[in-house]
Amino acid sequence: MKKKIAIVGSTGSIGKNLLEIISNDINDFKIILLTADKDYKTLLKQAKKFNVTNLIIKSTSSYKILKKKTSNTNINVYNSFEHLGLIFKNKIDYVMNSIMGIDGLEPTIKIIKYTKNIAIANKESIICGWNIILKELKKNNTNFIPVDSEHFSIWYGMQNLKVTNVEKIYLTASGGPFRKLSLNKFKNIKINQAVNHPNWIMGKKISVDSATMINKVYEVIEAKNIFNIPYQNIEIIIHPKSYIHALIKFTNGLTTIIAHDTTMKIPIFNSLYLKSEKKISTNTINLKTLNNLNLSKLNSTRYPMIKLLKILPSKSSLFETVIVAANDTLVNLFLNKKINFINIQKELFKILKLKEFNNFKKISPKKLEDVIKLNDYVRLKVLKKVYKFTDV
């Protein structure tokens, strides 16, 4: 029997990697749904190649074009996740959510009840709405698999073990493109430098987040949420090669090191072929890299974003949504040449010190609307304050 799956965000890098994996065993899968934000050309090509009859595309203009192009086909085109009930008559086997940004939270929550397994590569969902997601997972008896290489590694290394067996988790960070850059040159960092990650091919936004190190702060929050481990038991360490993805020190004195090639195909493949003997072709163990791991402590002077970890509340709150929304807005301003690189961090900390936002540390997200409303408000607030700052 074919495995029924859906890919939320199929035109991005994660979605494309997943489709490439599936193409090797195309007869084993039936893709029920593919979705995109606005790239209707890629979405339509994917639908035709994999014989997919249900598409969701969020952009109104792209929806109109795609609707017209599929008018004489058996393809159903929707422009909202409100229509999931029309697409899924029974629970499918697997959903991948790889939408980038806070926009990935709504489809995450809405699609959980339609699948037995959900693999999530959307950081913002886990950071801003984990309480809501966890409630839906339990309510619908849906299995969750993290896809980020670090969290998948931890998840894999903790199979059949309890959280109480874990003494400390170490997340590795490459250090990004500015690991060795002189600190007095940070004020002159250009966009093309910030998006030039040394190890991973990523979009501009996430590449900038990696360069500032807030991406790794996000991963600490994710790890705390997913594995229910206190912040003090999670540490970031620099590992320039990105070969080791996580280290887990257990209370029995043993330490597990999880390593794999610098490719997202490995966690994606394993999330798809859960509890299967299916094999993936990978490189042989790199002894040269293993003999030169070059692990080191993180320097807060070089990466001031990690100071965020000291002001986070111990329990999930709406304050995390404030951080994500403010940072997203500031990074977009940097990518649009409205502010310089170092002002991403400086302005973020100014915003977070505002009393109205600090109050959200005491409020946990209870419904999707809480997160969406706050996200919109914070973005507008940041634009007003930073526009004043930049005289725009």
Short description:
This protein has helices at residues 13-23, 40-50, 60-69, 84-87, 105-111, 123-140, 149-157, 191-194, 204-212, 214-227, 265-272, 287-290, 319-335, 342-352, 355-358, 368-390; strands spanning 3-8, 29-36, 54-57, 76-78, 94-97, 117-120, 143-146, 166-173, 234-238, 244-250, 255-259, 296-297. The protein is of the alpha/beta class and 392 residues long.
Task: Write structural notes for this entry.
The chain is built from 16 helices and 12 strands. It is an alpha/beta fold and 392 residues long. The chain folds into 3 domains: 3-146, Rossmann fold (3-Layer(aba) Sandwich); 149-261 and 275-307, no CATH class; 311-392, Rna Polymerase Sigma Factor, Chain: A (Orthogonal Bundle). The strands form 2 sheets. Strands 4-3-2-1-5-6-7 form a 7-stranded parallel β-sheet, with helices on both faces. α5 (105-111) links the parallel β5 and β6.
